[in-house]
Amino acid sequence: MGPWTSRLLLLNVVVECLIVVTGGVVRLTGSGLGCPTWPQCVPGSYTPVLEQAEGFHKYIEFGNRTLTGLVGLVALAAVIAVVRERRPDLLRWALPVLAGIAVQAVIGGITVLTGLHPATVMLHFLVSAVLIAVSTALWMRAQEPSGPRERAVPRPVRGLVLAAALVSAAVITVGTAVTGAGPHAGDADQPVRLAVDPRTLSWLHADLVMVFVGLVVGCVVALRLVPEATVARRRAAELLVVTLAQGAIGYAQYFTGLPEVLVGLHMAGACVLVVAMARLVLALTRPTLPRPA
N or C end of the chain, less CB within 10 A? Predict the structure, then answer.
């Protein structure tokens, strides 16, 4: 795999994370309806107009929509690069990313047309998390040769890592529900929230985080007992660092009344967590080693 292709696939991961962060900025500044229609920004114009009542919010929302186009172009370039590199095995990762961006555009439109209903906002974020994981798989697999793979860790350790991955998915899902029930509605004039006690959801989220931390620590300890699993051991350590940092931000935002800056950092941290978790799962297998003659 050429160096430019590798950089392009890394860029694909970065922009997938960046669109989540800019989406968070839209939400945290109350700019979710800065462009009140879709696919146009206002009736008759695909771009903001000066006479709009939404003020600076229209530029924030339009900027996020514009970035979606950039994300799509990078994903398309990734597909072309994979084809040019003659790596058809990577198309199973590259094509879903490109298709997922189109799906995200539709979900984004539905979100605007439904007045930022929290269910569609949650779906928007969760699909982004899946796209980040798939983009990470594309990037990492491109750095390895194609062909058959073999197990890199014992079966019990594999089960522990996969359990951590499942719990991480639950943590992120409940975390989006916490946001959907909390104070950051995305539009200051039309706050639509989930009809669930946000404190109860926060406690559930915290409980799941504790379970996840325990599983990650278990992965780190178990992989230290597998001398040949050097890649997985390193990635488990990276995941633990990211998890602890994300947990610290989460508790800080909870006890300080959910300030916008910390909430935004927590959203960015969730993206990094998805990347780190995906990297560890991908390390469960490796290219089949040549057999000695």
Answer: C
